[in-house]
Amino acid sequence: MTDPGLPESAEVVIVGGGVMGTSIAFHLAEAGVRNVLLLEKDQLGSGSTCKAAGGVRANFSDEVNIALGARSLEAFARFGDRPGQEIDLHRVGYLFLLETAEQVEHFRESTDLQNRLQETAGSPTRMVSVDEAVSLAPIVASDGLVGACFSPTAGHCTPESVVLGYASAARRLGARLVTGCEVLGIDAVGNHISVVRTSGGEVRTGTVICAAGAWSARIGEMAGVGLPVVPLRRQIVVTEAIPGLPANLPMTIDFGTTFYFHREGPGLLVGMSDPDEEPGFHLNRTDTWIPRLTEAMARRAPSLLDVGLSGGWAGLYEVTPDHNALIGEAGTVSRFLYATGFSGHGFLQGPAVGEVIRDLYLGREPIVDVGPLDARRFEQSGSRAERNVV
Fold first, then answer.
1. How many CA atoms lie within 13 A of 330 on its CB side?
2. Number of neighbours of residue 326 by Cβ within 10 angstroms
3. C-alpha–C-alpha distance, residues 280 and 10, integer Å
4. What is the per-residue burial (b if ≥16 Cβ within 10 Å, else e) of 43-67?
5. pLDDT band at 381 (very low <50, low <70, confident <90, very high)
6. Is there a contact between 335 and 13 (Cβ–Cβ < 8 Å)?
7. What does the pLDDT look like over 296-350, one tens digit per residue?
8. Nearest residue to 338 via CA among 16, 76, 5
9. CA distance 264 to 277
10. Per residue in 231-269, pLDDT tens?
11. pTM higher than 0.90, yes or no?
12. Is 1 a residue whose pLDDT tops 70?
């Protein structure tokens, strides 16, 4: 029996209710696609999106990531008008702190590439001195730094609000978003998708779009499509209030250690990667990464060692072998599209990817050429590494 909240059929079924799925639902519905159905096994945004740090930027080493980031930054800046939601966007900039000549040269190259591709007017990304970096982020200790890179138009916003904005607008435009509904299988006749089987019943459809984040490999398997996505836990802590924090403190990243922070109310949101983390669906908080975080703080922002913590959480990165996303349409199964594997960049690229998947579904030239991000690149040894990874 089918849950009364589910339609018997849908033109498009989107799997996943984070920023990617809700952005896709909004852009499809806005383009006039009727009977769009989004399925989320939990609550909207409850996967990785609402556990993200909320950073938004376009400073990458890969041309496609630059284009997706820049396009999304424009959308975030206009989010209050379209789709119509306040997202607490703070364009305080992104500051990368660099400790070696090799890092400086790498960021000089990526900065030149970004500014050339964007033809940025006004405030382009630029290399800055150590003194300027410390003036931008006064809690930073300069010992060991040899340079920095600053993107003044980047910043951070609230992931939950972005999901709410896209979801509310998609519903107003006629899309149906169903939560608490897990996808259990995808049936096909020949190579044509026919039915999506869920915990609430079956839905007839000819199109499935996988936006399931860290859970995407399983959804791909249901359709016979390889999506090499691995879940990897990342943890964040929030500090207690810190007197004297600059209102325009940038999102600051110590590139060598990946230690990062930005303002979160009166305190800071702080995170860092853990090279000892084993892949898996680990969502519990642990203290195993804290000694490494403390060591990075002691070197780069020692004043934070005296600040208490008020909370934190664990979430999942959806990692691919080359830390680049998987965006495209399967070649073996008709009308199975996917947008996943963003390796920490999904939230900031959500607006542009929603447009891209809309265009791919409608059979028109995408706003950004994502051909290089086709999942089949790994079958052809065609990986493309993204170096600006945190």
1. 23
2. 27
3. 32
4. ebbbbbbbbbbbbbbbbbbbbbbbb
5. low
6. no
7. 999 999 999 999 999 999 999 999 999 999 999 999 999 999 999 999 999 999 9
8. 16
9. 25
10. 999 999 999 999 999 999 999 999 999 999 999 999 999
11. yes
12. no
In this prediction, residue 74 carries a pLDDT of 96
Residue-wise pLDDT for 49-108, tens only, equals 999 999 999 999 999 999 999 999 999 999 999 999 999 999 999 999 999 999 999 999
What lies within 8 Å, CB to CB, of 238 at 6+ separation is 264, 267, 268, 269, 270, 309, 310, 311, 312
Burial class (CB in 10 A: 0-12, 13-18, 19+), 8: exposed
